[in-house]
Design brief:
This protein is α/β, with parallel strands linked by helices and 341 residues long. It has helices at residues 21-33, 48-53, 55-67, 87-91, 95-99, 112-120, 131-135, 144-156, 210-215, 225-231, 238-241, 257-268, 290-301, and strands spanning 4-8, 37-40, 73-76, 104-107, 125-127, 161-162, 167-169, 186-188, 193-196, 200-209, 245-249, 278-282, 308-312, 323-325, 328-332, 337-339. Keywords: Carboxypeptidase, Hydrolase, Protease.
Length: 341
């Protein structure tokens, strides 16, 4: 059972900006109403500019969160785009390796990179929600589907199974204080969709945001990304990927069809599609390019025997489940369930 949550800003420093203080207050209130104590790590509220210029301080907070015995769950404030810059501050002198112990770690988006860092050190993590994106939902309550999985995590320390949400929600255009108490536009969800391959497959799940994975191999966003990720061997080896299920989901940037294909093709050059046991793919935000992404996936993978489960409620589209990394998953598309026995 989780009693104390540690809030960290490992990517964007948005949590410290004045524009989100109404969200911060709301989120802390919700956590406390769940019976949780909240510890905000020392630099988590330093703001966007400070944390952009001080990746070493973000790294310090992560190390402190692992070494603080009071903290049971490390909860990421939000994603961003440059958490790779923590690599030398966590790995050059085995700093993170000396600090880590098995405890719950939850985040998504750019936090994909942090998940890979922790995977290198044998730490099991949880992918799919963050503080600002989920706990601080501006409606009167958290989205029910998202709340179900967060509540299960804090009460049991695990996720037993994932089923589709009955609904999906359009993304908000207004996150200001005047949006407090407003509901999202809701649509009926069609459930998991098996695009190809066997309806039942299994393996440990690993992966995350497609754009974050692509940046490991492409320096278009930041020129030093590729060198740093190679230096610290961030992307798992093919032997590590053997038999795993690759999770892919797209960001709120809603990549164009050309970019989506380019990112998938870059991943394919690693050989990953030839060794994994299956693919789990998140719902696109607002269902934009829903059918087009399916076609590109099938054409790029080009192996009709590889199971691909599509439209899973994970990643940037709301609502969001939570997926454990590092645990065996049994996928059953016919029964519409992913189990973690």
């Amino acid at each position: 059972m989780i009693r104390t949550v540690g809030l960290v800003s490992l990517s964007s420093g948005m949590l410290g900006e004045k524009s989100v203080q109404h969200e911060l207050a709301l989120g802390i209130k919700r956590l406390k109403n769940l019976g949780l104590d909240v510890t905000i790590l020392p630099h988590a509220l330093k703001g966007t500019a400070y944390l952009k210029n001080h990746p070493e301080k973000r790294a310090e907070d992560l190390i402190r969160a692992f070494t603080d015995d009071r903290i049971d769950l490390i909860l990421c404030a939000i994603g961003g785009d440059d958490t790779y810059r923590l690599l030398p501050h966590l790995f050059s002198n085995h700093q993170l390796a000396q600090a880590v112990r098995q405890k719950a770690f939850l985040g998504f988006s750019d936090t994909t990179i942090n998940h890979l860092m922790l995977h290198k050190l044998g730490i099991k993590t949880f992918y799919g929600q963050s503080f600002l994106a989920d706990i601080c939902e501006l409606a009167d309550d958290m989205l029910p589907y998202s709340f179900h999985y967060f509540k299960e995590l804090i009460e049991t320390g695990r996720i037993s199974e994932i089923r589709p949400s009955k609904y999906w929600y359009e993304e908000r255009l207004d996150y200001s204080e005047k949006a407090l108490g407003t509901e999202r536009t809701v649509h009926k969800n069609q459930g998991f969709e098996l695009l190809q391959g066997a309806a039942k497959f299994k393996g440990e799940i690993l992966g995350g945001c497609l754009e974050s994975l692509y940046d490991i191999f492409d320096g278009s966003r930041y020129p030093d990304t590729v060198d740093l990720c190679q230096q610290y061997q961030l992307f798992p080896s093919l032997s590590d990927w053997q038999g795993k299920i690759l999770l892919l989901e797209t960001s709120g940037e809603r990549p164009s069809l050309i970019m989506y294909q380019k990112m998938l093709e870059k991943l394919k050059t690693t050989g990953i599609f030839s060794v994994i046991s299956g693919l789990i793919v998140g719902k696109p935000v607002n269902e934009l390019y829903y059918e087009d992404y399916k076609r590109i996936l099938l054409d790029t993978v080009a192996d009709r025997t590889l199971p691909i489960l599509y439209n899973v409620n994970i990643g940037h589209a709301t609502p969001r489940c939570i997926i454990p990394f590092g645990l065996m998953a049994d996928v059953d598309a016919d029964e519409q369930v992913i189990r973690f026995p």
